[in-house]
């Protein structure tokens, strides 16, 4: 039973234990409550993976942000810390929890040059409605992640409405003034825009600009499966920049260059999460997207209001 009537928002930091800027900000917020105004919302602040944070590791047994699946929750995983932690978060803050939340915002940092951006998983109308308000307010890009069956179990998908805030670049385990400042701004904007919906003063934009996921690619590898090339100098730190057919993607020390030349993709794409350190183990050197402009639909707005007021 939900013991917190009103609009309940779950704010998560430290889903990955070596992404330390948002958790540090949460600590400061606890010490100095005046840092961020709640604007009448019920805010639950939680460190997603506290044990991994203590050791400054991404995770203990597996990626917490790939652990939120019904299959994981249907059987016992006594020896897997992240699956137990995922179930614990759902039991407390999920639909049946005593602190159940309608909305979750998950704050991350990245080693890629993503700037301040949003990640939306799939096409839930409520997610798109909230994302449109935030983008309209501070103009940040949105990565729409869909159609990748190899990637599942994301935290925000287990709540009725959820977005990920990604900010970079910053090395893992390092506090950075710019990342902290951008996290603070994005956090306050998320709260303010949700509060405007609560007071029915939200001003939805006409359009939403998204970068829709097409595919992810790995680094070139030799016959032994070892990485044999690195991000080309012309592409390094060029997240969100247009890449056309023939643009170099990878280079090796022996002079070989791999160019963008995928017959199954458009002639121009936009890469994101280039050279993200944590994705090396997943076999991802970067992801390709295509930029699209969508109309903000009345259905999105109506569904968002229903979520918060029904």
Write up what this structure looks like.
- It is a single chain.
- The chain has 310 residues and is α/β, with parallel strands linked by helices.
- It folds into 2 domains: 8-210 and 295-309, Aminopeptidase, CATH 3.40.630.10; 214-290, Single Sheet (N-terminal domain of TfIIb), CATH 2.20.25.160.
- It has helices at 21-31, 50-55, 70-74, 81-93, 125-138, 177-198, 298-309, and strands at residues 8-13, 42-47, 103-109, 115-121, 142-145, 161-168, 207-217, 230-231, 243-244, 248-251, 257-259, 268-272, 286-295.
- Strand 4, helix 5 and strand 5 (142-145) form a beta-alpha-beta unit.
- The two termini are 16 Å apart.
CATH topology of the largest domain: Aminopeptidase
Percent of residues in beta strands?
15-25%
CATH-defined architecture of the largest domain: 3-Layer(aba) Sandwich
What general form does the structure show? globular
Low-pLDDT regions: none
The CATH homologous superfamily of the largest domain is called: Zn peptidases
| Total E-strand runs | 13
The largest beta-sheet arranges its strands as 2-1-3-6-4-5-7-13-12-9
Helical fraction: 25-40%
Measured on Cα atoms, how large is the radius of gyration? 20 Å
Structural class by secondary-structure content: alpha/beta
Summarize the biggest pleated sheet.
Answer: 10 strands, mixed
Q: In DSSP terms, counting alpha (H) and pi (I) runs of 4 or more, how many helices?
A: 7
Distance between the termini: 16 Å
Number of domain units: 2
